[in-house]
Design brief:
With about 160 residues, the protein is α+β, with helices and mostly antiparallel strands. The chain folds into 2 domains: about 55 residues, Beta Barrel (Thrombin, subunit H), CATH 2.40.10.170; about 100 residues, CarD-like, C-terminal domain (Methane Monooxygenase Hydroxylase, Chain G, domain 1, Up-down Bundle), CATH 1.20.58.1290. Helices cover about 50% and strands about 20% of the residues. The protein is built from 5 helices and 5 strands. A 5-stranded antiparallel sheet has the order 4-3-2-1-5. It is globular, with a radius of gyration of 17 Å. The N and C termini lie far apart (about 40 Å).
Length: about 160
């Protein structure tokens, strides 16, 4: 259970803050919802309290873990499947887990592949989504401006090549 003010991550959307917990009637059923203010794009999400964890809602990583994630971004890329369709599906599954390690690996591997061979339009969008998710969580965890964190992340990605 989360409280107002908690920093959380919602898979595929990134990090945000629980701004409110309120009851809403939707389709004739009254439920409690977390009202999340996402750090990127001023997006507001409502997530049912009852199944927030099933949907992948979790706390933002600790400040100490940020350095580990930055190291993941510096690691050499994994060998990627040459079939873009399989690669796309596998990377999407990683992003949907909401696991910051997996999302960072997707960002690193796609960034590296983009530098070497280029990416399809769909994979370019996926790369930007993965970077946005990583930026939002690491910026919130360290209380750093997102643009500053984005620059740090790209420095790490550039050292992985």
């Amino acid at each position: 259970m989360f409280s107002v003010g908690d920093k959380v991550v919602y898979p595929t959307h990134g990090a945000g803050v629980v701004k409110n917990i309120k009851k809403e009637e939707i389709l004739g059923e009254t439920k409690s919802y977390y009202v999340l203010s996402m750090s990127v794009g001023e997006l507001k999400l409502m997530v049912p309290v009852d199944n927030g964890s099933e949907l992948g809602l979790r706390k933002v990583i600790d400040k100490d873990e940020v350095y580990r994630i930055l190291d993941v971004l510096k690691d050499p890329e994994n060998e990627l499947c040459s079939n873009w369709n399989r690669r796309y599906r596998a990377n999407m599954e990683k992003i949907k887990t909401g696991d910051i390690d997996e999302v960072a690996i997707v960002a690193r591997d796609l960034y590296s592949r983009d530098k070497e061979k280029g990416l399809s339009t769909g994979e370019k969008k996926m790369l930007e989504q993965a970077i946005r998710i990583v930026v939002s969580e690491l910026a919130l965890a360290t209380e750093t401006e997102e643009e500053e964190m984005r620059e740090q992340i790209f420095e790490c990605l550039d050292t992985s090549n």
